[in-house]
Design brief:
Length: 84
């Protein structure tokens, strides 16, 4: 089944809370984070258990942090409620 809206994307992509330009730094950044996460996942599958259990645990913790970071980057904040 093919779906065509015939409206085009106008160079924008959807994020949580809105649309941003496809060249937005956040889009590039979470793409890079996703790539890193996939490399870490591949490393985890290649490491021999139980010999590398401690390293595997550390890598899995890093993966969880990267998922959280990617989610934060994909959230468009209309109004910042706090000061950095």
């Amino acid at each position: 089944m093919k779906l065509y809206t015939k409206t085009g994307d106008k160079g924008k992509t959807s994020l949580i809370g809105g649309r941003v330009s496809k060249d937005d730094l956040r889009v590039e950044t979470y793409g890079t984070i996703d790539e890193l996460n996939s490399f870490i996942g591949k490393a985890v599958t290649e490491l021999e258990r139980p010999l590398f259990d401690d390293i595997i645990a550390d890598l899995e913790t890093i993966q969880h942090e990267l998922f959280d970071c990617g989610g934060d980057l994909a959230n468009v904040m209309k109004e910042r409620k706090y000061k950095l």
